[in-house]
Design a protein that fits this description.
alpha+beta; about 425 residues; Nucleotidyltransferase, domain 5; elongated; five-stranded mixed sheet; single chain
Length: about 425
């Protein structure tokens, strides 16, 4: 009695077709504990050759799919990479989890349980998700890279610190730089959102240049808003120098108006003239909207207000420049968007920041965090991206273990 034909058999890699008399059958398995299905392509005269699909399937007993409730037979299990123990869907789910702030240990153990293995504890328990983030994270972030142009970039940074429990002394472990963008007209996605996140041991001009270059912008933004950060200004001018004869620098570096107001109030308070109804406080309300408003505010300051006089002297040139051209700039004047992202990052990562010591791996993790904050992290979408990438690579994934620091060294310190 002839065997019944397989349901949805894989295609023969040599191009043999059923219409030419070829039949694909199961032909055993290969692999250790995680078995993969092998197939045989059999000609009408009985000549055969065995093969494994580009993306093998995890050998499973007949049952019901957990995702779609469809009946599964043994050769229709989840797809896996040729050199990976775990199915690609588990990899996709783990990448979504670490991007949402789940620790490597928890994400690794969820993947182990999903694969029918026991969770681990102690040193090395988070190895699985950490390696997947390193190997597969760039595949996801490159596929979902921003393509819109931001007319305004808001740049801010936050420090992650460690406190010595014995001495109570704090030291900065590393800084995370944030680029928050407001899309320009005609953008495919008009939502303001985080454009890039970059971790470095410092927050100097070179680090900001690295972040800005990683954004791969099609053109410089019209304006960059920052909290009077000299490193940001230096990075912007080195990356996008002002051309001779250019009336308005592109991008124009704009100081955050909220922080300017806060600092002005602090100076007025030190001079004891920040009370309700003060002529100076009334004038401050319009000080940063245009040049006339700034001139009206500074006209209220006398030599008696020594703190405010010193503050005005320090910011005069910068504020006069930006209030004179404010009406030509996009209507984004504060760093609040980037500050909100920085606060989210601290809440997500601060408790385990001490363990984030490898610069390249941390930045690959932050790429997944960016997608989470932008609302673009979806396990099904990630799975489709991983599957396509594995198929294009002949079923194999990026080798693991390439981005490791030497013992006793930390590239993010």
């Amino acid at each position: 009695m002839p065997r019944p034909p397989l349901q949805n058999p894989p295609t023969c890699p040599l191009g043999h077709l059923p219409t030419a008399g070829y039949t694909v059958r199961k032909a055993g398995t290969y692999g250790g504990a995680a078995k993969r299905q092998l197939y045989a392509c059999v000609a009408s005269d009985g000549i055969r050759h065995r093969f494994a699909p580009t993306l093998p399937r995890e050998h499973n007993h007949e049952g019901v799919c957990d995702s779609c409730d469809s009946t599964l037979v043994a050769h229709t299990g989840p797809v896996v990479g040729r050199d990976y123990l775990h199915r690609l869907r588990l990899v996709a789910e783990a990448l979504v989890q670490v991007g949402a702030g789940v620790s490597y240990v928890r994400a690794s153990n969820r993947a182990r349980v999903g694969a029918g293995r026991d969770p681990l504890a102690g040193s090395g328990a988070g190895h699985l998700a950490a390696e997947w983030t390193d190997a597969w994270g760039p595949v996801i972030t490159d596929a979902l890279a921003e393509t819109d142009w931001p007319e305004t970039l808001v740049l801010d940074s936050t420090d992650f610190s460690w406190t010595n429990a014995r001495t109570q002394r704090r030291r900065r472990e590393f800084a995370v730089l944030v680029a928050y963008g407001y899309p320009g007209p005609g953008a495919a996605d008009p939502r303001p959102r985080v454009w890039g996140i970059h971790a470095s041991a410092t927050a100097q001009a070179g680090d900001w240049i690295a972040l800005l270059r990683s954004l791969n912008l099609p053109a410089p933004p019209t304006s960059v808003v920052t909290d009077d950060n000299l490193a940001v200004g230096a990075a912007v001018r080195r990356l996008w120098p002002q051309h001779p004869g250019q009336a308005l620098p592109v991008p124009f570096v704009h100081s955050c108006e909220h922080h300017l107001r806060i600092n002005a109030i602090a100076a007025l308070t030190a001079d004891q003239v920040s009370h309700f109804g003060s002529v100076r406080m009334e004038a401050l309300n319009g000080a940063f909207r245009d040049r006339a408003g700034w001139d009206a505010f500074t006209a209220t300051i006398t030599g008696k207000q020594t703190h405010t006089t010193a503050w005005v002297s320090g910011v005069r040139a910068r504020v006069e420049a930006q209030t004179s051209v404010r009406h030509h700039l996009p209507e984004h004047y504060t760093t609040s968007g980037a500050e909100a992202v920085a606060a989210r990052l601290r809440s997500m990562l601060e408790q385990r920041s001490f363990s984030l010591r490898n610069k390249e791996r941390t930045n690959r993790l932050l790429g997944l965090v960016r997608l989470h904050l932008a609302g673009r992290d979806d396990a099904a979408h990630y799975h489709r991206i991983l599957r396509a990438a594995a198929e294009n690579a002949g079923g194999r994934g990026t080798p693991q273990g390439r981005n490791r620091d030497t013992r006793g060294a930390a590239s993010l310190r």
